[in-house]
Amino acid sequence: MKTPLGRRPRVVLVDDDPGLLRLITIRLRSEGFEVAACENASQALTTVPRFLPDVLVTDLRMKDKDGISLLKDLQGRYPALPVILLTAHGTIPDAVTATKSGAFAFLTKPVEKQQLLEQIEAALKVSGFASVTEDWRTGIITRNPVMEERLSQALIAAGSDAPLLITGQPGTGKAQLARAVHQASARRGGRFLTVACVTATQALLQAALDGRGDPDGPPRPAEAPAGTVLLDEVGDLPPELQISLYSLQDNEPVRIVSTTARNLPELIQRGRFREDLFYRLSVSRIDLPPLSQRRDDIPLLAAHFMDELARGSGTRHVLAPEAVELLMVGEWPGNVRQLATLLQHAASLATGPVVSAELVQRVLGTGTAPQVSTFDEARDEFMRNYLVQLLQITRGNVTQAARLAGRNRTDFYKLLARHGLQSEEFKIR
Length: 429
Prior knowledge:
globular, 4 domains, 18 helices, Rossmann fold, Helicase, Ruva Protein, domain 3, 5-stranded parallel beta sheet, alpha/beta, about 45% helix, about 10% strand
């Protein structure tokens, strides 16, 4: 099995027949697939978000939940995941139901090994796995597990034409991920057009959805591949254009990807965003974590940005270890974009090859380094809060509080004294 992404294709296999489950698992693994074997639909639903398969193969007839029900559950969460159904009851009504429900393929048991492999490889082409190379994510720098999971979701979404909504704080890289999805999709030979929703007009929106980009430009040639349109910050789209977009979208040749840093459900409640448009644009959803939740990426990102600056200016700067530590504990409301801008500013002010912590602090503009508790300080703070919680629960009853903590009363009194707590303060008078 060819693995263009540097990994083996992943298959979730679901069947409540242990013997058959084992047999097909062995066959698929011998062909180079990674397989997660599940004995029922419930297990599959918990496995998919962790394993992030490229294809799911499931039995149709199962005790806890049948394959059609599993398919429908997956379509709501992973609409681009191809699902192949197997059944020993290969009737025409079953096949019709499976097809109408959106199954990729319907095979009868006992399924031939080659027939199953052919269907899985066809499904991999639909999901984008078989034709995508690793450079689709070029420029997205991460080793964070949560971010890697989001990228796996993006790759699955790239195999579909379903509208995709990417959410996240400003500066988290939403537009960059949208372009990566385009690069991983079958539409990568077409144009990638961006519409800034805050300044969009009816003519600009229609031209983008036609694949032209320029409202006054010529129509897209019929032979040219339809590309992807990014609706950047779709929460800022004016109400009249929301109506137009909702009515036009079904007939447009392009794939629509939207981004927003705003809380669209809240805007819906306030009457500022159409609920029907929200559901249409968010068939697939990916939420990008803020930089504060992926601090392990900061040294990697910093090194990447310093390399970019060196290529652009011809002058290489390096960050002092103390400067990297300062970046690791800093607040980043502007996320990755803010980090890149700060490093550019700091490098421009550096008088030598080393960017010091003092210079980084000056650019941060806080005057003093962020305060981070030592281990002992953090432990003492946790202990005091824990004791307070126990005394609040027991209303100052030391005997009960000590019992809850698994300590004797003498030790518990010593802990209270060490942290300056008086049980009487928590008694109801």
